[in-house]
Write a structure and sequence with these properties.
single chain; 103 residues; mainly alpha; 83% helix
């Protein structure tokens, strides 16, 4: 079976090959950037209050928020990859079984 190019996979209307497996790294980087922006937003908003307790809480909680977001993003992306790998392996098993029955 010939491997299609990236853009050929994107516009494949049969959905016989998956693009998500190829772009998962980019999605993780985007997720890390969004988590960083969220944690920085929380930290900036805590400094904007001008209250000592809020600033201390922002300094303590913003790294915790960041790591929790990154872990959640990683877990969700791993779940997606597992589902796609199951689909790929199932397809290979079906093709193998068909080839065995054809002989």
């Amino acid at each position: 079976m010939q491997d299609k190019g990236f853009f050929a996979k994107i516009f494949d209307l049969t959905f016989s090959e998956f693009v998500t497996v190829k772009i998962i790294k980019v999605l993780f980087i985007i997720g890390i950037i969004l988590a960083t922006l969220g944690a920085l937003g929380f930290l900036i908003s805590s400094f904007a209050t001008g209250k000592f307790f809020a600033i201390i809480m922002g300094l303590i909680l913003s790294p915790i928020i960041w790591i929790v977001y990154v872990i959640m993003i990683r877990v969700w992306l791993e779940i997606i990859i597992v589902i796609f790998r199951i689909a790929e392996n199932t397809t290979e098993l079906v093709q193998l079984k068909k080839s065995e029955l054809g002989k």
